[in-house]
Design brief:
Layout (H helix, E strand, L loop, with lengths): L1 E4 L6 H6 L1 E5 L3 E17 L1 H4 L9 E2 L10 H19 L9 E5 L6 H7 L6 E4 L5 H14 L5 E8 L1 H8 L15 E2 L2 E8 L8 E7 L14 H20 L8 E4 L3 H13 L9 E3 H4 L3 H4 L5 E2 L1 H17 L5 E5 L1 E3 L3 H5 L6 E3 L1 E5 L3
């Protein structure tokens, strides 16, 4: 096991406290927790009608968010979510050293256009639907390294802009198979800090960045099956790195697998004699009511895991209903170009250990 000291201008005692460890093959354990001081979530009308509707900070009655195009709508959504997070935590954008942000659109235009007015150093990210975990992972590492005191991690997705980007414009009226998931209109923003303030929502104690995993699947209407192998891979390697059993966690929560992907990830881990069926839940399953909302396989999109984490998962940790969870958003790494050229749909997932504040 290797020890890495990421030092700032700390005292000797603080240096010891900040000792971070590389664990196993691909994990990092933080010597000092990174704190989620606050968060915000905004969703669209359909999401507000789902089982978690009463938990989101805001449910918009206008899926256009006052804009003239779907892309501008998503930018407005992301910008508003960041502002809400700042207001909830009584800080200004000047208190944020870096922003980590991304979305599903080409060149991450929802983030670049939505966040430009904040005039804050930005790390633009693309991890498809895993972007919430990607941003939190990189933001946490930056803070743990002593390179920042406060960072903002944010992502978003929009059903209409995603359909236009990856499939067909809504006006086409294409049929959706039962394996298809519904891209969530939603955004989640998270304020990470190097210090505890007494109102923190959770602690980030470790991360396991994931690998690209490609089983050769080519069905862009079955994202759950395409992403499940990556989820299984990072969960397996996380448990192996830390020598933990699934029941170490109250919940192991994937982001966007839906009903099809949920069974797939359980089966794939079962082949390695790891049973997560008692602990597993999926944000894409939780956010919609499959029986009444006609969302087929469940929810997906960058905003799915992000909004559910902010509105629901962190609340369970705050209320001490859960002690510790493994948060594993998943992403499908495709584009219209790669798909139309006959390429497969690789997946990626990142795991974040979130614990109740002690």
């Amino acid at each position: 096991m290797l020890l890495i000291d990421f030092q700032g201008e700390d005292s000797v005692s603080q240096k010891n406290e900040r000792t971070n460890k590389m664990i196993g093959k691909q994990s990092i354990e933080f010597g000092k927790p990174v704190w989620i001081q606050g968060s915000a979530s905004i969703v669209g009308k359909k999401e507000g009608q789902g089982p978690l509707g009463g938990l989101f900070d805001k449910v918009s009655t206008d899926d256009m968010f006052g804009a003239s195009t779907w892309e501008e709508a998503e930018s407005a959504l992301q910008k508003e979510t960041v502002q809400l997070c700042l207001e909830k935590n009584n800080i200004s954008i000047d208190d944020i050293r870096y922003m980590f942000a991304g979305d599903l659109l080409g060149q991450s235009i929802a983030s670049s256009f939505g966040l430009s007015e904040y005039n804050t150093p930005l790390f633009g990210l693309y991890g498809a639907c895993s972007t919430s975990a990607l941003s939190i992972t990189l933001g946490s590492i930056t803070i743990a390294a002593g390179a920042a005191d406060k960072v903002m991690c944010v992502t978003s997705s929009h059903f209409a802009s995603a359909e236009k980007e990856f499939r067909y414009p809504l006006e086409y009226g294409s049929q959706r198979p039962l394996s298809a998931s519904w891209t969530v209109i939603g955004s989640g923003a998270f304020l990470l800090s190097d210090s505890k303030n007494g109102n923190d929502r959770a602690m980030i104690t470790a991360v396991t960045p994931g690998r690209i995993v490609d089983f050769g699947l080519k069905d862009s209407m079955n994202m759950g099956a395409c992403m499940a192998p990556a989820a299984a891979d990072v969960i397996y390697n996380h448990l192996k790195d830390f020598n933990r059993r699934p029941d170490y966690y109250d919940k192991i929560i994937t982001g966007d697998l839906g009903y099809v992907g949920q069974q797939a990830v359980i089966d794939l881990l079962g082949q390695k004699e790891i049973d997560i069926s008692a602990q597993h839940m999926d944000c894409g399953i939780e956010i919609f009511d499959q029986a009444t909302q006609d969302t087929h396989a469940g929810g997906s999109g960058c905003g799915c895991a992000a909004s559910v984490l902010s509105a629901y998962l962190l609340k369970q940790l705050e209320d001490k209903k859960w002690k510790r969870i493994l948060f594993v958003p998943t992403g499908a790494l495709l584009s219209k170009v790669s798909f139309n050229e006959g390429n497969s749909v690789p997946g990626i997932a990142h795991a974040v250990v979130l614990e109740a504040v002690r």
